[in-house]
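Marked as duplicate of an earlier ticket. Keeping the data here for the record.
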Amino acid sequence: MARVACPYRYHRFPVDNLWFQCTGRTAPGREGCCGAVDPLRQRSIGFGAAAWPVFAPRSRSRTPRRAECPDCGTTTGIRACPVCHTPLPASFADADSPLIALGTQVDRAGVGQFRVDEPLLWLLSHFKIIERSRA
């Protein structure tokens, strides 16, 4: 089973375990979902604004593209990370894509210092992802 990594917190999980986020639209004859703060998402990535609910799909078919919200019944195609509940890019898990994580280091003053190692610069320039200055 293929595994993917969340582009926000780099959690690795099987591609078949993708969750979905409600669109907030109302299905005919039903009440719509209400946006609320997701405590798990707030703890995980610090996002504290109201958001539509995130849920696991009822159907466990291989990488479902759409799911029905269990609360309001509307169909959604917005996929979300099952670990941090953050909505994922529309093309997530549809194609092989390398994920390169760049981090920050924090010095004693608490200021983030962005650092890119020479091997990474070589890799990016070697594959013509970036052009290096010859100055």
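See parent ticket for discussion. The longest strand covers residues 3-5.
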